[in-house]
């Protein structure tokens, strides 16, 4: 199996095992409940403890929404460090391993596109059921507050829906953002990656509607909707950003539904990319652990941008970036992805360290913390883009140097023949843009 495929498989298995392992750990070791607690582990991942009267870091004391506590390294808690390592390392190691082997020059799928799509949909449905089932059982049957009435059960279902929503939003951008360079690394077609993106996007919208709809229904039944959407308190921004994220997802779905309309098709990709970026930034402000879980998506997107940019610089033929025409070749793209993953984590750590200083000060406000998760994604994306660009430039320069050492591939034309050379200097430059100076994956 291709190494990057193995990395993605390990990451998906980790996402399914995350909540069962977290819940089992808190059951076997109640002392760890504070370090791993919160909805989806938000407390342990975002340094948020239960408010106490002697809490000095958050305004309000025992009535505060949380009590911030410092992290271990760069503001990250031990739990966050473990989750980040399990979430990012398999992909980074898989990408590194892909740089040491040749990728197939042609794709040889074993099943038809329709069969592969059905299999993908079935696997994705099973994963979503796994993400949703355990939290639903926990909140419906083990939480006494959520077992009181019909509306509390609606609230329980909406909170449980946040779990699959989080995983879907963390993964939805990866297939589309990497569609120009991931196919040879995964031995799939670009169409299959786009199909995967559409499946994840549809499930993201479904869980978003269930999550937000249940929350709204419960708040309306309790007469608290207007108060919770008022920015009079910092913690209310949680609901404001949640509403904004839902609005952006609905706008994205509407745009995608009319993407083939002749008035929308010319600018669909640019608008879709911009709105999707805003939706993920808003989601990170709504649920702070997204800053960690979106690191792979940020890295994949940054690498895709670097691949396109390198194609413009070296070849000026962006339109030829298809399965068989990748700037620098698939191994160079894999090296850029590995560097980009590390850089995205570095950007996160830099912002998270500042976040720890700001939120850890005495009587810290509850407004400024909402800025740090989106800032972490933005800085991580910028650093990842720079790292990927540097790696691609170095790899392509190595390919050019190797090309200069090769003997001429064709003899000169006969004397007096005015016809141009079959391979001009320009074509040699175009060939040097691809790893190995030849077809996809050749060395």
Tell me the fraction of residues in β-strands, as a range. Answer: under 5%
Q: Work out the number of β strands.
A: 2
Number of helices: 17
Helical percent range?
Answer: 55-70%
Distance between the termini: 20 Å
Identify the strand order in the major beta sheet.
1-2
**H/E element string?**
HHHEEHHHHHHHHHHHHHH
The number of domains:
1
Rounded mean pLDDT score: 85
Give the low-confidence spans.
103-111, 317-324, 415-443
Basic shape: globular
Rg on CA atoms, Å: 25 Å
Tell me about the largest β-sheet. Answer: 2 strands, antiparallel
* Structural class computed from helices and strand pairing: mainly alpha
Brief digest:
With 443 residues, this protein is an all-alpha fold. The protein is built from 17 helices and two strands.
